[in-house]
Write a sequence for this structure.
């Protein structure tokens, strides 16, 4: 493969939430900035920009990764899934998203897109996690609002109900 | 923060990668998972002119148990090692240490060799390699060599790797009959860098303890059959010899106390394992 020059903008095509999406990127362009600025998919957030907070977490070929620690050129030709792809259309919430709403697992919502992408990868690989395992996985995210307890409840809820619970529990 | 501009080469083979390093000289860096290097580049602590990406080299994406060791290729991720079904049996210490390495999300891209090449004094993988007496395989355009862990890591983020060399694999020796292991660490948050980490290997009468997070590299000490207060004294001496310092995470005094306590706990746990 030829060396990609820092000066040039190189074509990058990804499969974003099941659809082809193309743009241009200098090698130094972070995947998250490519998604937000080149493609206009602003669902993924940027927090710390050095791999600590998890706000930018997306799935690349199914795996939850920090999109601030990956360059757009590294994602060329790969599948990228973001929060925008979770519901069938934008008014549709998945069982996990509904559980988040029910359990107050978000407040300002800044960390939420990343957390949701982590959990979707995690539950596919480990469909019946223990609470300890859930907390361990959540340790890769920083949430300034919720104290995480609601997120833990939401995941446990989805796991035990197979995602079926619809109505608010205690109202 | 965004990284400074760099040229990018996705190497298809080890040959292509080492040619890239030769061409790029001091200004070239290898990237695999990028979980340490990427963060440092975003903060502009490192500003390479050329990034050579080895994550896609199929020849480096392996895990092999042979010749008395578990050999891990440079493209294998930490998640792949942790999820390997043979880990508990083939590498019991790694089985205990791996869950502490970063987070679920960073292990998905971070590599085993990358963590060792990065040589952070508080990282679990360099500590495990040091305690087990493992090896690092290096390759350049002009040849290859293998270094013992103790020859490889020279200090804080500093190794014996020459600028034209890349780490192609690391080797963790297999457990010997009668050996048992324990791993302990104290960190602010699970998965964060350890303030102090302790790895113990015990076999009848012999104790080996490795400590990370205090000195500028993982440090290993061996003792014969120490018990009770003799063990306390040895741990105390070790804690002072490590020469820890105060920083924003902990004071030197707190670190010494952790060495004494989790050092002892790790040894006892290994004895009862
Ligand atoms: S923005 Fe990527 S981890 Fe914080
Ligand atoms: S909901 Fe505000 S940071 Fe998590």
């Amino acid at each position: 493969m030829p060396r990609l020059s820092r000066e040039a903008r190189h074509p990058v095509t990804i499969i974003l939430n099941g659809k082809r999406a193309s743009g241009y990127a200098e090698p130094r362009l972070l995947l998250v900035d490519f998604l937000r600025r080149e493609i206009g998919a602003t669902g993924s957030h940027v927090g710390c920009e050095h791999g600590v907070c998890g706000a930018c977490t997306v799935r690349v070929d199914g795996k939850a990764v920090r999109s601030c620690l990956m360059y757009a050129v590294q994602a060329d030709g790969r599948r990228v899934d973001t929060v925008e792809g979770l519901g069938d259309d934008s008014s549709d919430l998945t069982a996990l998203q509904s559980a988040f709403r029910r359990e107050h697992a978000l407040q300002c919502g800044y960390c939420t897109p990343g957390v949701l992408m982590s959990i979707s990868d995690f539950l596919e690989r480990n469909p019946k996690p223990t609470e300890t395992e859930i907390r361990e996985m959540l340790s890769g995210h920083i949430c300034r609002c919720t104290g995480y307890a609601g997120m833990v409840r939401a995941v446990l809820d989805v796991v035990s109900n197979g995602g079926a619970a619809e109505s608010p529990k205690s109202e | 923060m965004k990284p400074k501009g760099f040229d990018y080469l996705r190497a298809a083979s080890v040959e292509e990668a080492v040619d890239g390093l030769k061409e790029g000289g001091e200004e070239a860096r290898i990237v695999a998972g990028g979980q340490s290097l990427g963060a440092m580049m975003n903060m502009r602590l490192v500003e390479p002119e050329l990034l050579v990406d080895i994550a896609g080299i199929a020849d480096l994406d392996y895990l092999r148990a042979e010749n008395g060791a578990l050999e891990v290729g440079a493209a294998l991720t930490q998640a792949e090692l942790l999820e390997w079904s043979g880990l508990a049996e083939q590498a019991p210490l790694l089985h205990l240490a791996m869950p502490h390495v970063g987070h679920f999300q960073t292990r998905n891209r971070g590599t085993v060799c990358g963590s060792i090449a990065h040589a952070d004094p508080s990282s679990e993988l360099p500590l495990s390699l040091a305690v087990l007496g493992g090896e690092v395989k290096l390759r350049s355009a002009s040849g290859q060599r293998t270094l013992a862990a103790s020859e490889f890591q020279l200090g804080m983020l500093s190794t014996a790797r020459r600028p034209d060399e890349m780490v192609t694999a690391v080797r963790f020796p297999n457990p010997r009959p009668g050996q048992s292991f324990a791993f302990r660490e104290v960190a602010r948050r699970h998965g964060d860098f350890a303030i102090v980490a302790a790895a113990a290997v015990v076999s009848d009468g012999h104790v080996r303890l490795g400590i990370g997070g205090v000195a500028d590299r993982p440090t290993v000490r061996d003792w014969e059959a120490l018990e009770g207060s003799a063990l306390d004294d040895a741990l105390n001496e070790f804690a002072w010899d490590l020469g820890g310092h105060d920083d924003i995470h902990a004071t030197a005094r707190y670190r010494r106390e952790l060495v004494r306590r989790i050092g002892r706990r790790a040894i006892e746990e290994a004895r009862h394992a």
About this structure: The CA atoms of residues 63 and 82 of chain A lie 11 Å apart. Confidence is low (pLDDT under 50) at residues 164-171 of chain A. Chain A has two domains: 6-84, 95-160. Chain A has six helices and five strands.
